[in-house]
Each structure stands twice: as C-alpha cells, then as structure tokens.
Write a structure and sequence with these properties.
Oligomer: single chain
Bound molecules: uridine-diphosphate-2(N-acetylglucosaminyl) butyric acid
Shape: globular
Strand content: 25-35%
Structural class: alpha/beta
Number of strands: 24
Radius of gyration: 22 Å
CATH architecture of the largest domain: Alpha-beta prism
CATH superfamily of the largest domain: Enolpyruvate transferase domain
Number of helices: 14
Length: about 425
C-alpha cells in the first residue's frame, strides 16, 4: 500500500503549475457522450477519478484516445449500452453525470449509484426532482439509478439547495429536451460555468451559467468540439495554503485569479502577502499567522473543499479561530488526525473551535478523504519530524503528481510502498 513519508520543516518556495479542474473535467467528459462526433478535451487532469470515468465510458463503447497525458479524444458514435454497472464507478461521485448526459441524448440511462468522499449524506433528491420535472421516470433499484423518458420537455425547476451536481446533471439533460428549461437557485461554481461553455461549444443554447438562474433552450443535435478545461481552483488553493502553513513563498501558475478571491481574502486576513500577476498568484508567509473566522458557502463564498486546508493553517495561528462547515455535515473527520499532530481543536456540530498552537509534530496518520488528505500533508510539511500518511489513494483521486509538485517546491516528501522504503527515507532525511 502506498504512503507518503514526509519530513517537515522546509518552507515551500518556488512556482507550481496548476492542472485542469477535476470537478469541471468530470462533467465535461460525461457530456462528450452527448454527440456522435469527435470531441477533443485539453488540460485534463491525470487523476484517478477522471481515469475511472474514462474507463467506464470505454466500457460502454465510447472511443477514448489519449493524445497526450492531458489531452484526450472521445468519440461516442458507437455507444453499445446505456446500463453502466462498473464497480469502480461506484467509488466516484461523478458517475451520476452519465445519467444526465445519456438521459439527455438517449432518453434512457441506468448507472450505479455514486460514492465519493464520505463527507456527509450527499443526497441526490434534487437530481431526481430535476429529471422528473423534465418528464423522466426515475427509480432506484438494485443499486442503480434508472432514468427513462419517451421525450424530455423543458420545465421551470427550483432547486431546494444550491447543488453543483444537480445543476450540472439537470443542465445536461435539459440541453437536449424540447423547449425551455429554467433552473432557479442554480449553483454558480466555476465548473458549472465551464460545463455550460463546453455544451455551448457543442451547439447547446445555455444562458445565465454563473448566476443563480440558468436558462436552457433545448436543441436536437450537439456536434463535436475542442475544449480546454479551466484550471483547478482547489488545487491552486491547496498550494496557496501550503505556502502559508510552511511559511513559504509560492507562486501558483496558470490559474484564474477571480476563482480564488475568497481564498485570497482569507490568506490576507491571516497575515500573508498575496500578489496577483496576470494568471499567477504569489503567496508569501513571512509573518506569524493570525486567527480568523470562516464559514464555507457555495461559490463565491469560501469553498467547502478548502475547509480542511484553512483549518490546518488556523491551528498554527495565534489566537482562537472558528471554522463553520455549512455544506457537508461530516467534514471534520480529519481533526482527530490533526490532534495527533498537536493541534488543539474542538468540534461542536458543524463548528470547529481552534486554539492555535506553536507547532505540529510528525505522527502516523491516515487521509480520511481527498481534501482532508491533502490538508494533512500540508500539516506534515510544517511539522517537526517525520509523518507517515496512509490511505493516500484518496489524495490521488484529485491531485495529479501531488508529491512531485511539492518536492519541486523543496518539500521532503516521498511515495513509499514498503517498510524498507520508509527506512531509506528516514536515513536520507536524517
Ligand atoms: N444536496 C442535496 N440534494 C441533492 C444534491 C445535493 O441535499 O440532490 C446537498 C448536499 O448534501 C450538500 C449540498 O447539497 O449538503 C451541496 O452538495 P453538491 O451537490 O453541491 O455537491 P456535489 O455535487 O456532490 C461537488 C464536488 C465536491 C464539492 C461540492 C461542493 C464534484 C464531483 N464534487 O459535490 O467536491 O465539495 O460540489 O462544492 O464536483 C471534492 O472535489 O473533493 C469534492 C468533494
């Protein structure tokens, strides 16, 4: 089993190139199945969730050809099944994007129910409500979500919660429905906008993505496209906070600064210097970090996917900080691991009360989910001594070459497989 071995204490210094956004790439790949013509996707992150989805698409007859590590050609002209029971697909959240895509194009889809990180109950009632409003019959049987329609007809849909997944799924299905669909209380995340732009590049008629009202006029045909996925807001934010935690000086490159505003604002509040230079942001942490308060919110609020990373920083900041998680009810599981490294955090319901400590110390810890796993790695980079991080498969779901990018910034981190590798690492880092 792979683990990260980390010797903390080195400030991260240098430039890091940010890859394509996982949470944009996933729906874009699924939506590529909505045309029989060829689609080229560039800036695709080479991460496990994306590769699992591509394998599942291959298994139903989509031709998937890697042009290079970050560019893929898809052709869904010969799909041979609308029933997708792929075991691996159960593990990723985005499996359900194939429902919206295939239902939209073929008016029928049966897909294994999604898994993903264990961070809360993660209902799909809003997806189902949206599909039904468009005229589909939706049932859940034998672990599959089954959606079928004679035809889909545009509708006026009010989402009870702002949901990225439901907005994306309903938008895909509505793209090929008859007439106009209006989604109210739509999610405004950058990846929702990216999918809308991709669908539009295929001939869809979508207005308002990025606001809370999206208007979709159905079309009968989508054509091929060439598209570049947006940079990953959360990967960028993770490196920006890694700079803060390690008292470093890191420039994240190839990003869209607008997508990072709430993250930048918090870094400034806790005492970092943040400089925006075209499509780069430099974060310098030369002064002691200060406490603050933060509440996770849908975009443009502070992202829930950055909650563990800011908590790791605040636990090393002077004073008492409060972090409130308002999106997922079970997203503080990593706090036990951080406590083993010396953090002083009390969790009450959806709130963490954090009393800053002077340092972390290395320990043997496990990644409970993707973002928390990455955040724990940043804690280990700041810690005194050696940390072993288990269950890094979670981190690999969403971060490409995480340890290599950190190494290039001066971190002492290695991927180890066996006890012997770990001993070698310990000897090397002293
Ligand atoms: N919700 C419902 N009913 C629904 C759908 C959602 O009640 O039908 C609730 C959820 O329980 C949650 C809230 O609405 O409380 C928001 O959930 P949302 O649907 O927006 O989340 P998601 O689509 O399941 C995506 C990302 C997550 C990210 C969230 C929030 C993907 C594949 N996943 O999940 O990313 O945390 O949006 O921004 O895009 C990650 O990348 O590590 C990750 C977990």
């Amino acid at each position: 089993m792979e683990q990260y071995a980390i010797k903390g204490g080195n400030p991260l210094v240098g430039d890091v190139e940010i890859g394509g956004a996982k949470n944009a790439a996933l729906p874009i790949l699924a939506a590529s199945a909505m045309t029989g013509e060829s689609v080229y996707i560039e800036n695709m992150p080479d991460v496990r969730d994306v590769n699992v989805l591509l394998d599942a698409m291959t298994n139903i007859g989509v031709m998937v050809k890697r042009i290079n590590r970050h560019k893929v050609l898809l052709n869904a002209g010969n799909i041979n099944s609308l029933v997708i029971e792929d075991e691996a697909l159960k593990k990723i959240r985005a499996s359900y994007y194939l429902v919206g895509a295939l239902l939209g194009k073929y008016k029928h889809a049966e897909v294994v129910l999604p898994g993903g990180c264990d961070i809360g109950s993660r209902a799909i009632d809003q997806h189902i409500k949206g599909f039904r409003a468009l005229g589909a019959t939706v049932t859940i049987e034998h672990g599959l979500i089954k959606a079928k329609a004679e035809k889909l007809v545009g509708s006026h849909i009010y989402m009870d919660v702002s949901s990225v997944g439901a907005t994306i799924n309903v938008m895909m299905a509505a793209t090929m429905a008859e007439g106009v669909t209006i989604i109210e209380n739509a999610a405004r995340e950058p990846h929702v906008v990216d999918l809308a732009n991709f669908l539009s590049s295929m001939g869809a008629n979508i207005k308002g993505a990025g606001t809370d009202v999206i208007r979709i006029k159905g079309v009968s045909h989508l054509h091929g496209s060439e598209y570049v996925v947006i940079p990953d807001q959360i990967e960028a934010g993770t490196f920006m906070f890694a700079a803060a935690v390690t008292k470093g000086d890191v420039t994240v490159k190839n990003i869209i600064p607008k997508h990072l505003e709430s993250i930048t604002a918090k870094l400034l509040e806790i005492g970092c210097e943040v400089e925006e230079i075209e499509d780069c942001i430099r974060v310098v942490a030369s002064k002691p970090l200060r406490h603050t308060q933060v509440k996770t919110l849908p975009y443009p609020g502070f992202p829930t996917d950055m909650q563990p990373q800011i908590t790791v920083a605040l636990a090393l900041s002077r004073g008492t900080s409060i972090v409130t998680e308002s999106i997922f009810e079970n997203r503080f599981k990593y706090v036990d691991e951080l406590t083993r490294m010396g953090a002083n955090i009390k969790v009450e319901g959806n709130t963490a009360i954090i009393d800053g400590v002077a340092k972390y110390t290395g320990a043997s810890i496990s990644a409970p989910d993707l973002r928390a796993g990455a955040a724990l790695v940043t804690a280990a980079l700041a810690a005194e001594g050696v940390t072993i991080v288990d269950d890094i498969r979670y981190i690999q779901r969403g971060y490409e070459d995480f340890h290599l990018k950190l190494q290039a910034l001066g971190a002492q981190i290695e991927l180890v497989q066996k006890e012997r590798d770990f001993q070698k690492f310990e000897m090397r880092v002293g």
